[in-house]
Amino acid sequence: MRIEVVRGDVTQQPVDAVVTAANQALKGGGGVDAAVHRAAGPELVRASRALAPCPTGQAVVTPAFDLAPVRWVVHAVGPRYRGRPQDADLLASAYTAALACADGVGARSVAFPAISTGVYGYPDEEAARVSVAALRGASTDVERVLLVAFGDRQERLWHAALG
Ligand code: ADP
């Protein structure tokens, strides 16, 4: 699996599946989740709510509706950062669960935002390291992962984590 860093908006990537940073209720939120729901249209929230609740560290997959040609949206629930040891495990689990969801529907390319690093308050540098380690450790048929950096700083952090 190739991991690349791109600068931009996760809804604008030419991939099979887009990951969003969802909440447990899967009812749409702020930040990247708002952008994904806006782009996918109102059917997305109906489809995702039907699968709620989704525990922290897990993910579910729905069609991408108006986000076509993207085919799938993977709704991954990262942890709210509290500075506990299990936060890193839960964040890693959100990435690997999202990758497994994408794999399960046959996606070969997947775009990820920096899960938990916005409203959920996860320190971005540690989150970059955790996300890269989790993805590198996963066994999957996904061939290409795009880490979508919403700003300069995120782009640098992901490049640094990739080494
Ligand atoms: P969380 O609640 O998991 O912290 P947020 O949506 O608040 O999720 O933030 C997660 C990350 O997504 C932040 O780094 C934020 O800058 C980034 N982000 C926000 N909008 C987009 C977008 N359209 N594409 C990619 N990343 C985005």
From TrEMBL:
Domain of life the protein comes from: Bacteria
SMART domains linked: A1pp
Family annotation (InterPro entries): Macro_dom, Macro_dom-like
Regions that span the bilayer: none
Domain (Macro) ranges: 1-163
Record's protein name: Macro domain-containing protein
Native organism taxonomy: Bacteria, Bacillati, Actinomycetota, Actinomycetes, Kineosporiales
